[in-house]
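User: What would this chain look like folded?
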Amino acid sequence: MTTQISEEELVRTLKQNSQSSFEYLYDHYSGSLLGVVTKIVKDTEKSEDILQDVFVKIWKKIGDYDPSKGRLFTWMVNIARNTAIDQVRKDKNIWLEDIDELHGQVDKKASFQPEMSLFDLKGLTDKLKTDRKVLIDMVYFQGYTQEEAADILKIPLGTAKSRIRTALQDLKTIFKI
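Assistant: Here's the prediction, encoded as structure tokens.
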């Protein structure tokens, strides 16, 4: 019979790389996480392989887990969901076509000559309102996630997402797409 460990204690010992805590984590959460993965992947054997990847990611990223942002289980579900989605995308080979095969499909006679002013993307963002420009700069030019940018600017994540979406619509108008 296994002893119950509080979530706080489990996280603390996982962050200390405790093998027994990781085994406890696997024993108590693998079934639920497998269910999450299987709903997305819809292949039991592949789901089991993905589950192993999920637990490797959890092991490697446990130091990034912040209890103030949510429960451990929620954090692990997000890792499982994202890993499963990534695998589905990879399996569809959406972006993995061989360029040599596509090369013959390109019509070399068709040409698009964009205005040279459109190549100055950073300059185009200067036309945006300051609050939107700052977010676009952080997310698209500096590499922050939307969540990180919202935290740095001390604004709600929803506000950051709305401003980014509006900024992209403004840029679309500038490009006349």
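The chain has two domains: 7-92, 116-175. If you want, I can go into more detail on any region.
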